[in-house]
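Amino acid chain
________________
===
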Amino acid sequence: MQNIYSYVLQPHIALDNNQLEGFLRETLKLKEEQSLFFRKLKQSIDARKKDVKINLEIEVSLKKPFENATFNVYQYHKKSFSKTILIVGSGPAGLFAALRCLELGIKPIVLERGKDVRARRRDIAAINKEQLVNPESNYCFGEGGAGTYSDGKLYTRSKKRGDVRRILEILVNHGATEQILVDAHPHIGTNKLPIVVSNIRETIISAGGEVHFDTKVVDFVLDNNKMSGVVTSDGKTWHADAVILATGHSARDIFEVLHKNKVLLQAKPFALGVRIEHKQFFVDQCQYHSDDRGLLPAASYSLVAQTYFKNIQRGVFSFCMCPGGFIVPSSTEQHELVVNGMSPSRRDSVYANSGVVVAVNELDWEEFKDYGPLAALQFQKHVEQTAYEKVKNALGNQESVHQTMPAQRIKDFFRNKKSVTLEDTSYQPGLLAMDFNDILPDTISVPLKDGLKQFSNKMKNYDQGQMIGIESRTSSPVRIPRDKETLEHLEISGFYPCAEGAGYAGGIVSAAMDGERCVEAFALKYL
């Protein structure tokens, strides 16, 4: 007998295998000597009511252990390559594009401006301890992209773009836990993602692909509206049959090079705001309606509000919520302030944080319209640099090196008042009490204030949290337009703008799927 059953159970049963086995034996009326083998196929938490439940889908066998895994194993073998693709960037889009190349008999050459994950750790430590930002190797740039040192969230709504299950299975093939195939909102964790990423790199190299670090693209080889290669900072020209641009949304210099080459770009709306930090215990209380979450994981939240500024609607929403996590400095240049959130796999920090951001539109970047398609990017940069200068001046610091972040209690933000004292924080480089009403433009601060008030009505005592800024790298402020069918740039053949940096994805899984799609589109047209 081997069957699949669905149950709605209390957490102490669903999340404890011994208790779960006892429940199954009782429910299936099994004798003590009878064999029982089971494995979870799907698991989700329903915390809408005070009595929190776990939805489970379980496969049961009463005769013998399961012989087959619940996931596919993908093999990558050396082949003779008839075509070559240059992949700029080794984030999820670039890495999965490379793997798909290998499956289709195309040689991938991955060019990464930053360092491998092991070497990258030293530069990240320097940001936290010495407040020094390496513009080529930081929380955003380097092997695995921004996602490597993040929560590693693997949930996406973009299921029409590709096979989500396949992406998760490939991650499991390379060292991720099988639990990501079970959980409704899976994540890997910042402590485990580097191993997965380095394993993918080894797969690419062993199957005949190439991965080059400290290799920064500074120009593109363009002729008669066709892209046939790139030029790197060492003066080398790399030629290929196509170029996939998978640089992520923080590679501003790439946008500038494309604009200089008169490549069609478009300014794109994004979102900007702050990180809100609470104690994880507070979030658990709100979401699980209890002072003791027991076996339940660190709770998260998702909040949305609609506000108006000068009669124009502005959405305010939580973004990239990191339960049991940390706030980290994510600047890519020294003289700017940017934060992001991350969580280890166990999500066991005493802190919880989430971006809370305001939708940005063309009215915000009106002042920068002379920059054309880079106007939204310039607005984003202006806010980050303004925050840096204001903090520097408040510190009375003539030195230009710091990653001290402005911070304010939410209730003081409502009062337009700098906080007298600040809460403890997970942010290592340190905080400085300032008033975000003076740091953020009115088009952001006014809707943000309204949105946070609405959040506090939806989630009692939410306004006891602390604001830390600036959260600005939510998505790309530039779109590189491409054909909906061929996925090539609208005007340049052989050029595939890909994933977050080009404005076509919003997370690890969606970026990975977009990387695969670009390779498949190339193969359909050119193989």
